[in-house]
Design a protein that fits this description.
- It is built from 24 helices and no strands.
- It has a domain of 353 residues.
- It is an all-alpha fold and 508 residues long.
- The chain is globular.
- Helix 4 packs across helix 5, helix 5 packs antiparallel against helix 18 and helix 9 runs antiparallel to helix 11.
- 53% of the residues are buried.
- InterPro entries: DUF3360.
- Keywords: Membrane, Transmembrane, Transmembrane helix.
- This is DUF3360 domain-containing protein.
Length: 508
Amino acid sequence: MTDTAKQDAAAEGTYQERHKPASEFASRSDYLDHELQIMKPRRWGLNLPGRDFRFEWEDLVPAIAGTIGITVMYSAVMQAWAAGLTEKWDHVNLGADFAIAVVRVEMLIPALLFCIISSGFINPKANLAGNHGPMIPLIGAIALAGAHPLALAILLGVFGLILAYFKGGSKLVNLTSDGVAGGLLVFLGFMGAKSQITSLFDWSGGLQSSHALDYSLSHVAFIILALNVVLYAYLARIGKRWLAIPLCSIAAIAIAFALGAGLDLKFVTAPGLPNLSPVYWWGSTETGWQLGLPNLEHFIASLPFAILAVAMWSPDFLGHRIFQELNYPKKTEEVLMDVDDTMTTCSVRQMVGTALGGGNITSSWGTYMIPAAIAKRPIPAGAILLGALCIIVAVLGYPMDVTVWRPVMSIALLVGVFLPLLEAGMQMVKDSKSSQSAGICIFAAFVANPVFAWALTMLLDNNGLIGDKDRAKTLSVSDRIIVPGLAFVICTLAMAAVGMLPGIPKLI
């Protein structure tokens, strides 16, 4: 920084000096905009409430949304691990109690270390390390391939730290045009929304047989969705979309009970604490994961999945940062999530969380970041509240049953993640050039998957073969060919190795 720049920065003053009470602004939105513009988070230093950031009641929204989302995803991951490992190994028998215990481990220790301490106080420019949603459908295949959760975590963490050290994550984000990013977001939003709507109708259709009722409850899903569409549209109309997850989730619960579907909600997770000793989880083939410590074969089987998970981080991080850019006002670069810092946090969290007994595959926390961006809130205060909520839910147990109940889970993911992804993607497609890149990205995603689509269209777009041809002229040979080419080759080989390319048998 030059002397002039330092003087200008000093003249602006600190966050504490520039803060003004909300009463001095014409609207709440103006106050929140001003808060974002004056914040200067310290990277890898101590950030304190009052001095560097403040708690606002809007921070409760992403905290609640993130807690609901992560409980849902952790439960899905642990159940998939338990089923896959039990099928793979004759001596392994992991049931529902195991899955609940591991979910609690993941919600206790990582919440304290990487939500409250890391993203809350140490580096608010790093988004929280949550769950790698696109990897959930692969968990069964990972287990059946002979991978070991701890071996996978170590490899993923090491690869992530290497990429973060060389600023590879931010480089890939900067080389992804608006058209490619917009197409990626539209596809993810559409497919996610379709999945949750289908799951909600499946749940509703099965209620009659499960409760031996004399009448059908298959209409419950339609009424829940229809009324929530109206509620979500109204919240968008009055500029309160950030309230969508709590209000729509409450509406879903109320409608389900009013229509007689409440009998499906069972409270089975009693208050308690899991075993927090790593020795219990990994020290024997008779306790915890019943796998013991990983050996060389476990690392070899885990390798392609670790490469694939890290390769998928960049488009995941890209979507979350874009959400901030679309919803924050101008001059808020200081509070945007740093892709490489987030990658560092995710890598460390992956290794530490799994070493302590967890089984999550981590990534940037979308069910926190997207509502936070919509609510115009920075990372730290909400991260602290979210960490506290995760600890409370994990200890009490019973709230976990509510968050994974199908009406709550589907509606929360729809209005908190997938609909906003669709909206953001459409906002990024601004002209015919970007629409061409977006359309080809969506097409390629349907042909294979979103990671393949992102890598392929980024390579084509940066070379002027699709999208804005003039943009390619401004890029260096490295940015046009070397970096996108390597990303495409690595992603394609990793997907081919684990059988993610349609029609091509897996290589291992």
